[in-house]
Predict the structure.
Amino acid sequence: MYAALDALRTARAELIAATPNKGGHRARAIPLVNQAIDETNAGIRYAQ
């Protein structure tokens, strides 16, 4: 889970750094990655 969390954070940083205007896909992906980060954190908390 921790490796997944690191990968998601890296993906979010890459999306934020990417040039805008990818047909709206970049803008839609950022909140989805944020949601995945939240879910991963919830899984980590649950496992503790």
